[in-house]
Structures are given as structure tokens and as C-alpha cells.
Amino acid sequence: MTRLGRTALPSLHGVRTPAYDPSGVTVGVVHLGVGAFHRAHQAVYTDAVLAADPTWGISGFTQRSAAVRDQLAPQDGLYTVLERGAGAAPPQVIGALREIHTPDACGGPAARIADPRVRLVTLTVTEKGYRFAGGHLDLTDPFVRADLATFPQPPTRSAVGRLVAGLELRRRADAGPISVLSCDNLPANGATLRGLVADFCAALPAGDRLMDWIAASVAFPSCVVDRIVPSTTAADLAAVAAALGVRDEGAVVAEPFTQWVIEDTFAAGRPAWETAGAVFTADVAPYEAAKLRLLNATHSLLAYTGALAGHDTIAAAMTDPVLADAARRLMTEDAAPTLTLPDGFDLPGYQESVLRRFADPALGHRTAQVAADGSLKLPIRLLGTARDRLAAGGTPQWTALAVAAWMVYVATRGPVDDPLAETLAAAADASSAASLVDSLLPVLPSPPDPVWRDLLVAHAGRLLHDN
Ligand code: CS2
After folding, report:
1. Which residue in 74, 361, 393, 461 has its CB near the most CB atoms, within 10 A?
2. H or E segment to which residue 461 belongs
3. How far apart are CA 301 and CA 290, in angstroms?
4. 147-177 per-position pLDDT tens digit
């Protein structure tokens, strides 16, 4: 079967194709981490602006592997987004990714960031890609140390090292201001990334000069991203081939829902992403807390309790009335009281839409995928709610259920997919519920509160008994 590529475009039917000539697009964005999420989210918004402004093409770098490069480079960077679920639109071929590299190619991302035509760096490197520990850059991390030792020379290994090396080359080249936009599920992702960049600069011998330039020339807007994008399977690729009549090795599958709320504080212009429905606002913090504490927290609850109950997918977990009820109550009883919502935010509508999205069986989003990297995700999604509810004299039952389910998952399903997998496996003591909680609690920045510990022990006891 023919492979998707520029020459195949005219023969495609029933598919949306780029409304511009991809060969006329120049690169204005460097993206770090060209995973499925980037391809189904930011690249789709960017695709919508290129007909009117072809200066915002994306130069994408993988984090390590050559897999995505090998999927997309032979296809002229073109790939399909296949929506699945209620209200799905026809498949869409995206042309926004104009270059795809591994990080060791072409002088690495740093050389690309120093190009004056580039005005924006975006990142989707997942929680663990930021290499933070206790709110700061982990200077003991081997990748971070290697990048500091050879700075700013390639090959760089960490996302922050790559970014800061690029900013240094840009400063030296006098290539002008630039914006850096983290698109990961972190609280205050812009300010957080800026802090990690400052930590990296502080560890450099002459980092002050660079940090001064960054303070004057680089903006770090925060944003909230939302779209469920499972890993692509062989069956998905077969479905795309059947729909297109050509083979597409780089296709991604996503739910129809998509949302992007962005702080409009860019230093060197930005794509008109509002064309595709992005919302620009002065302060994303209320949206971000709502998304992390309502959607992502509930996702993790369903992932761990669902996996323990033998459910392969989030939608299967939602068919269990006990788990669906826990998911609803985590939002209404634990998370909602801790939130300061944006004006006009429809809380009941948001909660219902989260549950509806999770329950849609078309996506096949695996509990194991959402369960990955819990040691980094739980503090961001669940522990803030626990802390706030406890401080208000409340009992965060459902939040405790999610954390206890993670503990039992770690102890009974390990070694888990987590950067701390070895530490967790060595620490977990499942001889009793109390010892399990006491052995794993120190791994998390957990509230030192006896009420919280009692809640965890009670839930862990029930879950251990059932597993
Ligand atoms: C999920 C998120 O894998 C996970 O941890 O909770 O990736 C989730 O699908 C997205 O944040 C939805 O926007």
C-alpha cells in the first residue's frame, strides 16, 4: 500500500487535508517531545493558522528515540489524526510538522532555537521530563549533570539542558526575544519551567549573564492543555489505512474533545491559535487547578482502582458503578471545595463532561498508560486537594482511595512504569495495610496528618484484602 506523503494528498477522499501547501511553510516553532499528544493537540491548532500565516511551521525533536522520526520523515511530516467517540469528525491530515529530528541531529534543538526565524519553543516532555525534585531542578540527575558539564555543546540529554543551551546560542547570536511554552500537566507550567531554567543557569559558572538575558528577552506563558490521546496501536494504524487508502505510520488517535487555555504573554508574537478555538486569558491558574484536580485526579483514581479490579481501559473501569461513583465523588466532595473557579465556569457541566469522556468506550485508553509515573503525577493531581481539605477540617475520602490504590498497585503489580520504580519496589512493604502506607508515604510529599494516614490505611486494608 502507498505511504502517506505530499504526493498522496490529491488522491485522498473523505479526509480533511492541509488548506495550504506544506512546502511553502517556514519554521517558527521548535517543539521538544513529538509524542502522540503533541501531534493530536498543539500541532492541530497550529495547522489551522498556516493558511493565513505560513511562518509558524514546527521543527519537532523527539526526546530520544528515532521511532517518530522514522514514522514521519518518509511521509514529508504528514500524519493523520483519527477522532474516536461520540461526535467524531472525519480524519484529518496535519502538515504543521515541517521537520522531525532526533535530538542529536543538526546540532540538536539548541542550534534550531538560535535561528532568528524561530520565535517560540513548545514542550511536551511529560512530568518526568522536567527532572524536578522538591520543586527544583534535580542537579543530581545524570542527564542534567552531563548537560551542565558540557554546556552548551551538543549532545544535550535533558529537556531543560536542551532549552537553556538553545537560549545561550540565541543570546550569542543576538537572534532576539523568544517565548517558551510548556504544554505539560504541571501547575503553573510556565513559571515552573522558568524556575527550572533559573536553577540550571545558577549551576553554570557564568550563568548570571544568561539569566539576565532570559529575564529581558524570554517569556514563559503558562497554559492548560486537555485532550485524551491514547498510545497508537497496530489496530489504529490499520483503521487509518482503511479510512485513507494509504498507509500512515505516524497516525494518532484522539477523543473529539480538545481544549487549550493560554496566558497571552508572548515575547515575539504567536500563532493565532484562537482560529482553532484556543482561549487566551490573563491568568490560567484557576483553569489549571480545575483540570488537574478534577480531570487528572479522577483519571488516576480510575487507573489504579480500575487496574486493581482487572479493567484494562478507563472506559471499562467506568462501567463499574462503585468506581464511577468514587470518580464523581472525588470531584464533588473532595476537589470542588478546594477550587477558586474562573468566572462563569460551569462546574456541574465540567464534571459531567469529564465522566462522559472517560466512559466513552471508543477510545480504548488503557488504565496502565494513565497509571504510569504515579510518583510524579500524584503530588500534582491529588495531594494538593488532600492538603487543602485536611486544612479545612475535611476528610478527603476519595483522594485517599486514589492514593491508597496507587500504593496497592505499586506493591502488587510492580515493578511499575515509573522513574522511581526501583525505590518503590524496595520500599513497599505489603505485610499489612499500615506497613504499606508507612513504607510508601515518605516517597510522596504527603501531608503529615494522622487523619490522612488513617484514611489511607483504611482504604489500603480493603484493597489489599480484595487483591
Ligand atoms: C492522563 C492525561 O495519562 C495521564 O496521566 O491523566 O494524560 C490526560 O489524558 C490528559 O491530561 C487529558 O488532557
Report:
1. 461
2. helix 450-466
3. 16
4. 999 999 999 999 999 999 999 999 999 999 9
3-state secondary structure of 348: helix
Cα–Cα distance measured from residue 158 to residue 143, given in angstroms and rounded to the nearest whole number: 5
Protein residue with its CA nearest to atom 9 in ligand 1: 228
Q: 296, 353, 418: which to mutate for ligand 1, most atoms within 8 A of CB?
A: 296
Cα three-residue angle 120-125-128, rounded to 5 degrees: 140
Q: Whose CA is nearest to atom 1 of ligand 1?
A: 370
* Alpha-carbon span 113 to 214, nearest angstrom: 13
Q: Give mean pLDDT, residues 250-274.
A: 98
Among candidate residues 202, 415, 379, 407, the one with its CA nearest the CA of residue 292: 379
Amino acid at 66: A
The pLDDT of residue 106: 76
370 within ligand 1 shell (Cβ under 6 A) = yes
CB atoms closer than 10 angstroms to residue 393: 7
Question: Tell me: the pLDDT tens digits for 309-327?
Answer: 999 999 999 999 999 999 9
Measured in Å, residue 308 CA sits from the centre of ligand 1 at 19
Write a three-state SS string for 69-113. HHHHHHHCCCEEEEECCCCCCCCEEECCEEEEECCCCCCHHHHHH
Find the DSSP H helices in 246-310: 285-290, 297-308
Handedness of CA 245, 251, 255, 257 (dihedral sign): negative
The residue among 268, 282, 260 whose CA lies nearest residue 120 is: 268
Regarding the beta carbon of 402 and ligand 1, being less than 6 Å apart is answered: no
pLDDT of residue 135: 87
Ligand 1, from 228, 252, 292, 304: best to mutate by most atoms within 8 Å of Cβ?
228
- Grid look-up 498510545 returns 231
The best mutation among 260, 295, 418 to test binding of ligand 1, ranked by most ligand atoms within 8 Å of the C-beta, falls on 295
Domains and CATH numbers, the chain: 6-281 (3.40.50.720), 285-466 (1.10.1040.10)
**Alpha-carbon distance values, 284 to 225, 272, 345, 378 (Å):** 11, 18, 13, 21
Residue 21 Cα to ligand 1 midpoint, Å, equals 33
Report the length, in residues, of the chain: 467
Mean pLDDT, rounded, for 294-307: 98
